[in-house]
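Bug report (template v2)

What were you trying to do?
Predict the complex of my protein with INI.

What happened?
Run completed; filing so the output is reviewed.

Input:
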Amino acid sequence: MYHIKTIEGQYQAQGLKFAIVASRFNDFIVDRLIGGAVDYIGRNGGSKDDLTLVKVPGAYEMPLVARKLAASGKYDGVICLGAVIRGATPHFDYVCAECAKGVAQASLETNVPIGFGLLTTDTLEQAIERAGSKAGNKGVEAASATLEMVRVLEQI
Ligand code: INI
């Protein structure tokens, strides 16, 4: 449509290595996100042999592991998957904020795309809706965004 040089990423995962960082907290939900991400990479030319899954206790622990994986030089992209469900205390806000900030920082510091597949919901029902039912699967979206970013960055 626009007659200008345009850089955009293709959804082609062949030959790429991804690490998935997933929290054990709320694993009933997070397992669905992992399934969605793994399925997405496979359907877009990637190989399951090129995927590494790293489990962490909770969303709060994700940034450190994501940064170490990204800085290792072994992965083209990192996909963070977790679920934070609001409870009765402000704990929720601290966990979400630190995870979001830390993941963004890790990506900027390492120049490696890190997908942010963290559900932050008020209820368990909202989390279920985003983990492979009514509102899709946010694991798929995070994998897709990470793949697109890998393919964008390699052209810049
Ligand atoms: N971690 C999550 O990933 N999801 C949550 O919903 C959650 N809540 O509700 O507390 C949660 N907390 C644990 C946190 O991520 C750390 O593992 C913990 O604070 C130890 O450092």
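What did the reviewer find?
Residues 9 and 154 are 9 Å apart (CA to CA). The helical segments are 27-43, 62-71, 91-110, 124-129, 138-153.
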